Amino acid sequence: MAFLILVIGDLHIPDRAFDIPPKFKKLLSPGKIGQTLCLGNLTDKPTYELLRSIAPDLKIVKGRMDVEATSLPLSQVVTHGSLRIGFTEGFTLVSAEPDVLLAEANRLDVDVLCWGGTHRFDAFEYMDKFFVNPGSATGAYTTGWLGKEGPAKDGADESITPSFCLMDVQGISLTLYVYQLRKDANGVENVAVEKVTYTKPVEPAAES
User: Fold this and answer.
1) Nearest to 10 by CA among 79, 85, 83, 87
2) Which of 34, 98, 148, 163 is the most core-located residue (most Cβ within 10 A)?
């Protein structure tokens, strides 16, 4: 059985969202996830307890709205296989431009950097590193900038698609599964799953 890593963040419960969507909760039942990387902005204790029930191995960084969680670090690094994975909420970064994210990945000395704060899923490879934003698991609105999307209109954005990610690391390779809660033309919600892969470049062995 694969060791799955849940990457989740920007929940904003109960300030901006009531709860994690039931269709997501059904997928995140205990026993399926080996470790959770939470990018902050929970922002209440029941949500923390829910994440602990999904996977006891819960790593959390401080989000800009986690004002009472003064002891949480701003970033953390975990190692799986041959990959170092760093994660941060992102409010200490000046933007979500690739060069800014690359600088943070280099600072943390990681192959994969997960960041949040924009509430929108994103994943891309840049300068041999892999960057992942799991989006908001609740679809909570955002009042800040949205990276490549630009600032939210009228101080908020109502079109946020709820999303989270699962990672499966095997050696130097990572498979990212992206779960998004989408509505069809009739307003019926369905969970769409997409797969993105990344393989860490391996430097050729020096000739003797």
Assistant:
1) 87
2) 163
CA Rg value for the chain = 17
Close Cβ partners of 77 (under 8 Å, ≥ 6 residues apart): 84, 85, 86, 87, 108, 109, 110
Of 79, 82, 117, 83, give the one whose Cα is nearest residue 101: 117
153-191 pLDDT per residue, tens: 444 445 899 999 999 999 999 999 999 999 888 889 999
Instruction: Tell me the pTM.
Output: 0.87
Q: Where are the beta strands (DSSP E) in the chain?
A: 4-8, 35-38, 58-60, 75-80, 83-88, 112-115, 121-126, 129-134, 163-170, 173-183, 189-199
Contact of 3 with 32, CB cutoff 8 Å: no
Question: In the chain, what is the straight-line distance between the N-terminal and C-terminal CA atoms, in Å?
Answer: 40
CA–CA separation, 164 vs 180, rounded Å? 7
Taking only the tens place, the pLDDT of each residue in 85-102 is 999 988 878 788 999 999
- Residue 181 dihedral angles phi and psi, to the nearest 5°: -95, 105
- Cα separation, 152 vs 186, in Å, equals 26
